[in-house]
Amino acid sequence: MFHKQLIGLLITAFCVLTSIPVYAKPDSDKNGHALVQDIHHQGAEVEFEDDQDEVYDAVHKGYIRPFSELYTTVEKDLRGRIIKVELEEDDDEWVYELKLNYNNNIIKVEYNAQTLEMILIEGRNFKQALKN
Known about the structure:
Largest sheet: 5 strands, mixed
Helix content: 25-40%
Keywords: Signal
Distance between the termini: 84 Å
Radius of gyration: 24 Å
Organism: Vibrio zhanjiangensis
Protein name: Membrane protein
InterPro entries: PepSY
């Protein structure tokens, strides 16, 4: 009789323990900022206008491409050193706002965060910074 009770108790304990997601992280641990900033660019200040949960959701929905892809696009399009990156939502569109230093001129560039299409470039002598 004792063995049947012990076996029943062990089976119950096993079922309870295996039903608890031990390694699952709670939703509050989602770090959208870290998800987007998959690489760090030395010397570039990074700012996020929106909280990490909003960014996390936007990345998973495909509205924001990671920094590594942004940096590759910038290196293909422009000359200069990135000194500041901001990510913000503007009229339901995610936008990367960059500041570059090219020949001691500060150039402001905006990219659509989903398509990585350049949508704005301005600043003194900005045409010289364009590669194409």
